[in-house]
Design goal:
299 residues
Amino acid sequence: MNDHVESQDDDEPVDESSGNMPFAKPAFQSEQISESHQFQYDELLLLRYGRKTAIVDVILVLMLMFAIEELIRFGVNWLISLPFHSTNMAVLPIEMFKSHADQVSSLITFPAMVVFYILICVFIWLIIRRRGQSYSSIGLDRRGLGLNCLIGIAGLLVCFAFSIFTWGFAIVFWRDSLAQIDENIVYRVTSVPTIQPLGLLGYAMIVGIVEETLFRGFLMTRLHRALGGWIWSVLISTGIFALLHMHNQVIPILVDTMFCSVVLSFLTIWRRSIVPAIVLHSLWNWFVYFNVLGYMQKE
């Protein structure tokens, strides 16, 4: 990924008709791109979008995202402790409290995640409507759909190969991390609905669409417009993505998560579309959920 540096210091959008397009490809490369693809390229780069406006939108979405997450966390903890408000916690058997907490978490976590995703999508939709942007500005475009889906599947194979290497390394050199995997699976059980595999695929697709729209389609592209380059925008969006996925995670899984985030970012930048990332993310989630479902049935 080439890191393009923007030459303008003000907040004025770039006038494409003037030829002063700091992110544009050289002429000999642009001529090789179809007209429709070139339009999508310009849309994703947000050339009519001011830097300061991009920074404001990123901050607004991040504040909303973390505020909703903390509110949900507070609500879940409050519901867990509600039956015991009049009880002396010092004399309460820890097994009783832990059992109750697990039951409440399994009932509340999934609906809370749905609410979180809906609110984030609505807020992003309001922002792009307010800014007069199209859905192509967040990488939602049907052009090249079949090829983009195939590229997403190829990316999934790359992520699987890296995951095998990561876990092989952990088994040989870091066996202590494997003892924590059961805790990670127990946490994931609370966020996975007990539905059939095809239903899980639908749920995995919803998660993939929302998270890719948020992290790659919105945050990464707006960070690129604000910072003037892809490298920092990929690193920052990957850091935020990993931060929101680090609850009860072991190090090998976090490494896999960060690597997959970089692959998802690369595919989005390369194809000027989040479709490959959605396909990869959805199938990866389905694979994880399917394994968690198998663990639940064994229990």
